Amino acid sequence: MNTPFLIAVVVLIAAGITAALLYRPKKPRHFESVYTDALNAIVHGDNKTALRLLREVVKRDTNHINAYLQMGEILRAEGNPHQAIKIHQSLTVRPNLENQLQIDIHRSLALDYMEVQNYVKAKNEAEFILKIEKKNIWALEFLLDLAEQQHDWIQAAAVAKDIQKITQQKDPGNLAKFQMFEGLDHLGKNDRERAKKCFVKAIEIDSTYGQAHERLGDFYADDRDLIKAIDHWEKFAHLDVENASNIFTKMETALYDLGRYGEVEKFYKRLLDKNPGNLDALARMANVLEEKGERQQALDLVDTALKQFEDSVHTRLMKLKLSLTNSPPHELSRQIDKIIDLITENKEIS
Length: 350
Known about the structure:
Elements: H1 3-23, H2 31-43, H3 47-60, H4 65-77, H5 81-91, H6 99-115, H7 119-132, H8 137-149, H9 153-167, H10 172-188, H11 192-205, H12 210-222, H13 226-239, H14 248-257, H15 262-274, H16 279-291, H17 295-308, H18 313-323, H19 329-349
Helix pairs in contact: 2-3, 3-4, 4-5, 4-6, 5-6, 6-7, 7-8, 8-9, 9-10, 10-11, 11-12, 12-13, 15-16, 16-17, 16-18, 17-18, 18-19
């Protein structure tokens, strides 16, 4: 083969390669980049674009489970949970899925069923996750929320114990709360004996859970066992300062019924000794002193509180009430102006 011919062949081959490189059709964009664009659209709240891109992904790759999952999530969020269920349910029959993918699928289904208020199936999906991963916290917390919504306090307590055991974070107050709620359910069904057992057990679980003391106190009051009622009400008042005023009227009535009139003042004094900022107790204490004819002592008590809580409308109203019969009009007018200023400031802030 002569040299010119060889040169011609080489030139033709080179030209062919060059033409192939220059004029070859562009490859379609890889579907993973489309999936990334879809995720970015979700992050930016553009669900319409995200859904279009995700549909493009699954057309190219019908095994892209995550794309199907995201499609279902968007459909549920957009108010189409039944369509989301169809998509997510179709994924459950896929073979050879890794455990984490199975968990993701059943988690989405649990949320789908919650959206359509099919609580039985929602619970089944969460329980299926626990068959795959016994200590899955998401599934346990989902079941706990569901139990609370359905007032299944026995189930709630059991799941809460499992969560606390796994996380090693003890919360006896939470367990006591479920026990107390179970007692309230029994009380609503007029099963007083079981209700009492639940209240007592709640206190055994956590003696510092104030609401259980309040409920047990109410229980004893209904049975006219006022001494025990007073004991639990006072424990509640010390443990739950914010809601202590719930029992003030009941406490006063019980003490009066027992003829223990002097104990009312002592009760409020004990509360104020432990928490001087309990303005509800302070107002009640001032009322007791006034009723005894000790108006000046009541005023002194309120004035002492105002040094620390000068912006308290409640306390200033109490001072105004005590001042009505003794203070001159200009002093009363000054007090009223201050109260108006405080109320106006509070409204402007809110």
